[in-house]
Each structure stands twice: as C-alpha cells, then as structure tokens.
Amino acid sequence: MKKGLFSMKKIYLIEDDPKIAGLLQDYLKKYEYDVIRAQSFDQIIEEFKLTDPHLVLMDINLPRYDGFYWCRKIRSISNCPIIFISARDSGMDQVMAIENGGDDYITKPFDFDVVQAKIKGIIRRIYGEYAVNRQSESIEIDGLQLHLTAMEATFQAKTAFLTKNEFILLKSFADQLNNVLSRTYLLENLWDDEHFVDDNTLSVNITRLRKKLDGIGIYNSIQTVRGAGYKMINTWGGQ
Amino acid sequence: MKDFLSDSVPFLLFFYSQVILIIVTAQLAAHNVGASMGFGVLFYLFLLPTCFLIVFLLFRYYKLRDFYIKTNYERFPDAPNHLLENVKQQHESQHIEFEQQISELEKQKQSEFNFMQQWVHQMKTPVSVMGLTMQKERLQLPEDFSHSMQEEIERLQQGLDLALYQSRLQKFDRDFHVQKITLKKLVKESIQEFKSSFIRNQVFPKLNIDEDVIIATDPKWFRFVLNQVISNAIKYSKPASEKVYFTMEHQNKSVMLQIRDTGHGIPSQDIARIFDPFFTGLNGRTFRESTGMGLYLAKEICQYLGHDINIQSEQNNGTTVSIIFQTNLTQM
Q: From the candidates A19, A114, A178, which should be mutated to test the interface with B, based on the most B CB atoms within 10 A?
C-alpha cells in the first residue's frame, strides 16, 4: 500500500459503461487523481493487484460477475476502501453493499461534486489528513494573489479580506479568466446547502467584490456582459 | 337442523303417503273379509314406522351434518354419499384451478416488477451520462442550450422515478421501512436535489424548520413525495414568484410541514380531483403535459405511511401543500 505524503492517489475504476468511465476519469484527473480504468472484467483481481490503488470505485452492474462478487474477492486480499456506484437505490442494495465489504455508496445519477467529496472523505479517513490532495495554497495571476485557505486577495502589498461568497465569486472568475460566466453558473457556485441562495445574493456580492478589489488597486476588472452574465479580465497586468 | 328437515320434507311426504297407502289397503282388505282393524292396530301401524323413521332421520342427520354447517371450508368434509362426493370433487378441482391462476398472475406480476426495476436502473445510466457530459461541457456550451438540455434530463429522471415508484407500489409486499428521522434533514436533501432547477427557474427555497423535529417515516418513499411537491412548486411558479417556502407547525400530537409557492395556483374546479390518477386538469394542459400520476402516487404513499396530505390553492396566487405527521407513536 502506498502511503507517501503528497503522492498522487491511485483510483481503480471498475465501470463497464465506457462513457461514464471516461467522464469520471477526466473529472477526477483534474483533482489530481491517477485513475486507472478496468479493462478486462474477467480479470479484476489480477488488475487490482497490478494497480495497487488507494481506492476502488466500483459499479454494481458489471458483465460477468456483479460488483458485490468482486468486492468480496478484493476484500479477501485487501482492505483498500471501496465505493460502490449504482442506479439501484433501495435500502437493501445499500445494506448489501456494506455487508459485502464496501465502504460507501453513490447512486446514479450523480453529481461529480458528490463523487469527489466522498472520495476525499474516505481518503482522509483511511490515509490521514496529510494524504488528502492539497490544492495549491494560492493562485497567482500577474501579481494578483488569491490565498485560498485564508480567503484573501493581495495585490501590490495591499490585502482584501473577503467573505465566503465574495471569495467563491473571485475564485470562479480567476479560474475562468476572460470567459463569460452566466448568472446561473455563479449562483450554483454560491449555493450553500444550509441557506441556499437568493437572486439578490449574486448582485450584492458582485458589487461588494468590485469595491474590495478597487480597494487593493484592481479596477474595472469584473465586467457585466448584458444578457450573458459576468466576466473578469486582467486590467492590472503590466503595471 | 332446520335445513336438514326442510330438505327431508319430500322424503317425509313420500314416506307417510306410503304408510297411509298401506294402512288404507290393509283396512280395505280387512273390510273385504268382514273384519276391521281396530283403532289400536291402526295406531301401531302408524306409530312403529314413525319410530323407525325418527331413528333413521337421526342417523341420516348425523351423517350429513357436516355438510349442513355453514362455514368457509377450503376443503369439504368427507362426503357421506356419492352425490356429495361428486360435488366435493368438483369444488376441489375448481379451487385448485383458481389457485393456479392466482399463482400464475402473481408470478407474472413479479416478473413485470422485476423487468420494470431492471429497465429503470438501466435507463438511469444513459441519463447519467447525459447529465455528466452537460456538467463537464457546461462552460463551452451556450447557456440556453445547456439549460434546455438540463431541463429535459431532469424530466427524464423524474419520469423514471415515477415509473419506478409506481411499480413498487403495485407490489403486494411493499418495502416500507419506517425510521425516525430529522424532518429538516430530509427536506434539505430534497431541496438539494433541485438545486439546478431552482436556479434555472429563478425561484429560490426558503427554509424555516426547527432543527430538532423528528418524524417517523420511510425516508426513501417520503423523498419521492417531497420531490413531487417541490417539482410542482417550481414548475408552476410565475416569473414574479421569488420563493418557495418550507415551513412547519407544531400541532396537537402532530407536526405539519407546509410547502408554499406563489405561482399560478390550481383552478377551483380542478382542486377536488387533483389527487386522482391520470388527472391533468387545466394546469397539466397549459404547462406542458404531465402524466397526472405524480400527486396520485404521492397521496397513496402518504396513506400507507400514515401521513395526511392536502392542498389549498388559489388561481394566480399560489398553492400550499400540507403534510401532517403523527407524533404520538408509542412504538416504532
């Protein structure tokens, strides 16, 4: 079992629908997981041994034998965490998943975010806090620095302290510099599962963010695009 | 006993008619030779057969008694004569035939159920692929296209769930597992499922439920009910509607959950039939076709779970759905 600090985590993905497998692989790669897809559904155990993953993502409906069968087989040689994916949502299926040695269960249709969050949770639980892929501490664009954990933005020695919503907006813009982001896209990012979101939330926070950016010398960066949304452009570079 | 006697009447009539015939014949014969049977002899000629008749009747009654008792036998008692044996056998073979037919039907029903479950779960995969692809390509696609596709994908998902729960409800042994669960948690989870839908339709949830309220329900089945209600609340909201309100009220021995929208409402002539199966009403026709089954299933499920559900609505003002949970349960 690999247990290095900050090493890239391997995920063995056992999913026979090639499109879902591909989509999951692409998505998880962005989070710096090394995703290995199962190729031969007769030889799961051999592939598992060769791959030696940190975590297994397993669909229940597989050709040949089902996910529960492979889970039991894997369990007989390893304690590697296993997350089941399935369209089946009855309580019995979830009970069976646990009884057969699984650690968690995701139902289709699923959100990428849900998958990513569950994987992160299990990696943290099994391998410890330091094993979790740390995002880089900050993003930097031409002198403008976003400090992710502190939720601050600094530019030329001045710092803006941002609220959670302001920061979420700024990061969304920074990740997609020069691209138009629609109201709905931004609202989805602002959605909080306790207080949800509001039509005003967006306008209010855009205004506040603009003001705070003005305060550190970033002017007219966040632009309103009529009928489409907002975008952030680099107005401070080259200073 | 009464039935036995009334059945025996023809026999008794015949018996006594013969006895009287014999007595009359004997009396005539006696007259012919100048004698006459005295009253005593006549009396004995009458009495003796009657005594034996009574014994005979008692004996018969004893033999046939089982067949006169009116209960629901699956199997007839042992038949004392060929006639009844025949009836018994006919009855039994018919019974077996019906049992077989029922068994066949149950197998067919189970088969249909299995097919439906399998099919729905299979269909969820391509719908997942579409949803995930949309998520992935989100920023590259024009927003109208993206919204339109998402809306259709959600309709597909809801339709599949409808089919799934409909088929589960048809089963004789539905799998209800009642648990104690926090109401707020359940509602939040359902709201979360509709996150995109709320945002796309520009109507937002407002939640006002105490943290500590616990209800007894089957979360899986109840989630379906909640999803129906939320889906309708969003669907029928007006552009001017800003919110869908989720509130609760403590009542005597119960808790009431209310979900209120400020949308188009339900016309008064439709309200009484809103829970009928296949009922689409004015709204169903005006706001894209609906199967008319969602609320019907929701009500059925609430009934099985022991919850009350009702709807108040005013056209153009909005609709309030109330669900009442009993909290005075002594055991789970």
A: A19
Cβ pair A188:B147 closer than 8 A: no
Total-model pTM? 0.79
For chain B, report the end-to-end CA distance as a whole number of angstroms.
50
Q: Span B228-251, mean pLDDT?
A: 90
Size of interface A-B (CB pairs under 8 A): 82
* CA distance linking residue B221 with residue B168, whole number of Å: 10
Query: What's the pLDDT at A136?
Result: 67
Distance from CA of A143 to the nearest CA of B (A): 26
What integer pLDDT is reported at residue B330 of this predicted model? 45
Q: Which of residues 145-204 of B touch A (CB under 8 A)?
A: 147, 157, 175, 177, 188, 191-192, 195-196, 198-200, 202, 204
Please say whether the beta carbons of A93 and A60 come within 8 A: yes
- Tokens found for residue B151: 């809306």
**Least confidently predicted of A63-77, A96-110, B145-159, B302-316:** A96-110
For the residues of B274-312, what is the DSSP string, one character each? TTSTT--HHHHHHSS---S-HHHHHHHHHHHHT-EEEEE
Q: Are A190 and A233 in contact (CB under 8 A)?
A: no
The length of chain B in residues reads: 332
> pLDDT tens digit string along A35-59?
999 999 999 999 999 999 999 999 9
**What residues does A140 pair with on adjacent strands?**
A145
Determine the distance in angstroms separating the CA of A65 from the nearest CA of chain B, rounded to an integer. 16
Contact yes or no for B138 and A184 at CB 8 A? no
CA A150 to chain centre: 19
Per-residue pLDDT at A80: 92
